[in-house]
Amino acid sequence: MSAKPFPSPDLAIVIPTYKERENVTELVKRLREVLADVPYEIIFVDDDSPDGTANIIRDLSREDGRIRVLQRIGRRGLSSACVEGALCTSASFVAIMDADLQHDESILPMMLAALLRGEADVVIGSRYVGGGGIGEWDRDRAALSRLATAISHLIVPNTVTDPMSGFFMMSRSLFEQTSRGLSSMGFKLLADFLATAGRQIRVLEVPYQFRNRYSGESKLDSLVAWEFLLLVADKLVGRWIPVRFLSFALVGGIGVAIHLTILALLFHVAEIKFQIAQIAATLVAMVGNFALNNILTYRDARLKGVSWFWGLLTFVMACSVGAFANVGVAGFLYGQNTDWILAALAGIAVGTVWNFTVSSFYAWRVGRK
Ligand code: GDD
Ligand code: MN
After folding, report:
1. Is the pLDDT reported for residue 1 higher than 60?
2. Tens digits of residue pLDDT in 138-159
3. What separation in Å is there between the alpha carbon of 74 and the centre of ligand 2?
């Protein structure tokens, strides 16, 4: 058998980037040093960073064909970037790591060696296993990280100490097998992967010290926490109820609270006529619900500018029809001698499902693009 003239590399390193122009050159330099003995390739997945990160990577690529960039236009998302990067290589093993040099690249050969020896299915660069550390994080961030790790144990075996790590390696075939079941929501791909792959996966954690960012700033914001909770909910109940619907229903509940607060203020405190107070409360609650859903429920299809106003109009129209359906169903059931609470709840359920389905499709155009 003749040797293949152009074999695919053993290892692909997938690196998500958003505004990392000052970091990529240094990272590539260090990877070259530590991986001198390994046939590898580096795949950056850049979400069209406005600072021109993709162009810098293409410059590096012109000098070294093992480096490439997958530039995604009009998309955002750390997990989905890593998934798409990992699916565009044919290397035997895939590593995921951040671009900002917080992950210690020097443990990569050790991680690969453990996989090659068949000691584990997934190797995690871990901050919480003996010898690892979180570096110079302040107390708040450290506490948040511990809390998130505790919550993640609802969906991930608690023998894994750092399921929130963004630094891990596995065989490409295992990744491929699992990829269709992933939620790919938000920042926490490893937790998503471990929850999807199931408990029979053998995990090895290799300690490292989390470093400070080399340059630029973290992209982690409060929405990341929300996305993480959605991920956990999706893994727990997503089989039966879409998490987008749960989020929509939760926002609906907040809307009722907003409505009642404004009504109480206008009617009781400001002594405005009930009908006018009720109209004002309804309008504020509708706009509030739309705005919140736009941020929380449809993060990945968020409307901006003119489309925001069109979306609002469509949402209001959908919800008006939903209100009729609600009153109709509740009235019918009550007429059939159903308990008033049950009749009202059934009306609310029908109205909410209607509002969700119609506004997903028409206001946020989910599933139509
Ligand atoms: N393509 C793409 N799209 N990349 C992104 C996006 C995005 O929307 N958001 C962030 N990134 C890239 C960043 O450019 C960086 O390379 C990496 O993802 C991690 O982002 P940071 O902003 O540096 O996150 P962090 O340091 O606060 O959090 C990291 O460490 C945590 C602890 O290990 C992440 O790896 C978390 O997943 C991890 O839990
Ligand atoms: Mn970082």
Report:
1. no
2. 888 889 889 999 999 999 998 9
3. 22
Burial 88-108 (b: 16+ CB within 10 A, else e): ebebbbbbbbbbbbbbbbebb
- Mean pLDDT taken over the chain: 93
234 CB under 6 A from ligand 1? Answer: no
As assigned by CATH, the class of the 11-237 domain is alpha beta
- CB of 248 closer than 6 angstroms to any ligand 1 atom: no
Report CA(173)–ligand 2 centroid distance (Å). 27
pLDDT in tens, 217-271: 998 888 889 999 999 999 999 989 999 999 999 999 999 999 999 999 999 898 8
Ligand 1 proximity of 184 Cβ (cutoff 6 Å): no
Closest ligand 1 atom to the C-alpha of 165? Answer: 33
Q: Which residue has the tokens 């064909």?
A: 65
Report the alpha-carbon distance of residue 39 to residue 10 in Å, rounded.
Answer: 6
The distance from CA 86 to its chain's CA centroid, rounded to whole angstroms, is 16
Instruction: List beta partners, residue 42.
Output: 13, 67
- H helices present in 19-171, as ranges: 24-34, 53-63, 78-86, 108-116, 139-152
Amino acid occupying residue 193: F
Per-residue confidence at 369, pLDDT binned at 50, 70, 90?
Answer: low
Evaluate: CB of 187 within 6 angstroms of ligand 1: yes
CA atoms of 90 and 43, how far apart (whole Å): 12
For 64-183, where are the alpha helices, taking DSSP H only? Answer: 78-86, 108-116, 139-152, 172-179
Domain boundaries, the chain: 11-237, 243-368
Ligand 2 center from residue 367 Cα (angstroms): 32
Pocket test of ligand 1: the residue of 13, 14, 15, 18 to mutate, having most ligand atoms within 8 Å of its CB, is 18
